[in-house]
Amino acid sequence: GPAGPAGPSELRVSQLTGAPIASCAAAVQTCPVVSEVTVGAGSWKLEGKLVVDNDVAAVPSTGNRCALVSGGAVLDEARLSLGANAGPGETAALALAASVADLAGPADVSLRCTEQAGEGMSVEDVKLSAQLVEKVVGP
Q: Which one, of 4, 12, 73, lies nearest residue 42 by Cα?
């Protein structure tokens, strides 16, 4: 049969080459923003990718995490423990994914990370994207 009308299509992207993570041992959704995109009304597919590097700490980082956050809610998170600087496991690549459905209006989606006191971690090759979709099916 004939093709139907095209659905919505919009891609919003934020990229960051590298930056230090601000010390934040609180809940990840309250930590400083690493990267952020603003999405409009509708339903959105969200993806984030980054490399976390333990640059300075002589001891391993434990219990840290990075998350996709919107409206104070954690949409997806990855927990990590890094090895000591210049040792095995010093870096970790993380991938995060989520969706938001039927937003009534604009919302910020951010990538945030925790860092325990006395550590020196950074992020590299950060990519955050939000793709407008016609609808989200599923949880």
A: 12
Longest CA span, the chain? 64
Instruction: Output the CA–CA distances (angstroms, integers) from residue 126 to 11, 50, 110, in the order listed.
Output: 16, 4, 12
CA nearest to 52, candidates 36, 35, 69: 35
Dump pLDDT digits (tens) for 21-34: 999 999 999 999 99
pTM for the whole thing?
A: 0.90
Residue 119 in tokens:
């550590």
Contact 34, 110 (CB under 8 A): yes
93 in Cβ contact with 49 (< 8 Å): yes
Q: Cα torsion for 122, 126, 94, 66, to the nearest 10°? A: 60
Output the six-digit token pair for 52: 């976390």
